[in-house]
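[step 3/7] fold_predict: job queued, chain A
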Amino acid sequence: MTETGGPWPKRTWTKRTPSRSHAAPSHSGVTRRSLLATAALLITSSGVSARIVTKVLPWKPNEAYPVTPVVPGGYLYFTANEAAVVDAFVDRLIPTDKLGPGAKDAGVTTFIDRQLTGPYGGHDWLYMQGPFSQNPLPTQGLQSPLTPRQQYRLGIAALEAHCMVTFNRGFAQLKGDEQDKLITGLEKGEVQLPNFSSRMLFNAIYNNTIEGFFADPIYGGNRDMAGWKLVGFPGVRYDFRDVLDKPNQPYTLPPVSMQGRPAWGER
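[step 4/7] structure written:
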């Protein structure tokens, strides 16, 4: 009863039901997904221990892809006739003149030959399953099932066949101006080679010529660092402190290749 003597008011109880809009409890940020992920990590990492390396480097220089210096002399992929065609071709792209040796004299044909015998020649590190676009965008790169080895073998054969029909001579036997005119036609796609793209052949030889003329001599081209001397590239010299102390002065030190040079102390 109440203080006034009246009865207590009758209480009514309402059953509470959870609202669908209420979020599930967070449990301090732990979710079922994260719990399962943590359990999976514990299972897969059990038995795994870190390797402790002290007082030594955990890797060796050139451990993955060691460079074997190219020994000039002879060809490993080109036939004698193919080598003569490439020699003549690269000699017209970068001829020997008063500025120094050209591509032929700098060993570019040897560089290309050795590259074709390695992973590059078979496109070993590229996806080659197709499909290949007939009209590729500039950003799509080379679109062809042919490897560089095949491009050179088939392309040179097609070039020689064209020269025999047109001039009754092979490419290497043509005069310099005839070779220049033919190379220009290949570049523009105006020369029709039998069963082969003239532009593909030109691009292959042109790009490899530039690479061979300016690559490190350890790969067979750029003999005596002729390409580096032409543009003033210092090579892979390990220390430039004496140069940095003399700003705005010509760089006169000779270039250095990956194999070094006979007189490291020359100044």
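[step 5/7] annotate
The radius of gyration is 35 Å.
The CA atoms of residues 226 and 256 lie 12 Å apart.
exit 0
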